[in-house]
Predict the structure.
Amino acid sequence: MTFTSASGDARRFAQEAVSDGIRFVIACGGDGTLHEVVNGIATVPDVTLGVLPCGRGNDFAATVGVPLKPKAAIATLLSGAAIRVDLGCCYRQPATGSYFTTIATCGYDTEVSRRAAKGTPLFAGTASYAYAAVETLFYYEPAFVRLEGDFGVYEGPLLLAATGITSRYGGGFQILPNARIDDGLFDVCIIRPVSSLTVLRLLPALFWGGHVSHPAVSMHQTRTLRIETDTPMLLYADGEPMCETPATIEIIKEGLSVMAPQATNQNWAVDI
C-alpha cells in the first residue's frame, strides 16, 4: 500500500507498479484519484483496476456497481469479476492524450468542476458541486464553439457540452442518462445558452435526466468529438484538467478492465 501526498503521485505509483509486473492495481479515492491511476496503467495490457470509493463524487464506482461501504467494496475486490469498460482519450495532438473514465466537460460545467475542486468550507460531496454550479452562474460567459462528431456539426454559442462514457458526474448529476459504459460510443449533451434562472430550474432535473426534453438541449452519440473555440478553453474530465482547445476526444472501446460485483449489469449503478 502506498499513500499519495501530492497531485501526480497516484499516476506515478501506478506506473511504477505495472512496470514491476503488477497486474492488479487498487485505487482508494474518488474520481480524481482514479483518473491518475488510469493514466498510469491505461497503455499497459492485461492490467485490472480495483476501486475502493472514498472521494467526493465516486461517479465511476457507482456506474460499475462498486458499493460505497468499505466492507462491501472490499468484497467486490475479493469475489467480484473483471469487466471491460470503455475509456476516453482527450488530446490536442495524437499520442499525447490523457485518459478518462467518466465525462469530459466543455464550458459552464468545466468552470463548475474547477470551482468544486477547490472545495468549500460549507459543503462536501454532491452539495459542493451544486454550490459551485450556482456560484459559477454569476460570472460565466458562454463561448462560441464548433463541435464536430458522427452526428454532424454544431457551431454557435454554448453553455456546456458534456461528452461521456458514464451517465453521471458531480456526484450524481445524470447529464447523460442513456450512456452505457460498454457500447463503444460517447453520449454528448449540448446545452445552448439560457438564462441563469433557467439553469437554476434545470439543475434539479439533472438528478433524473429531466433536462433532456428542454428545447435548449440536444443529445447525440459519437465515437469522436472535435472541439474548437473562439479562444482557448480548458477541458476537464473526471473533475481534472485535461487540455486546452482545439482538442479531440475519442473513445477506446473496452479499453479498461475493472473489478465489479458478480451480478453487475453494465447499464446500472448502485450506491450502497
Summary: Residues 206 and 212 are 9 Å apart (CA to CA). The two ends are 25 Å apart (CA to CA). The first helix runs from residue 9 to 19.
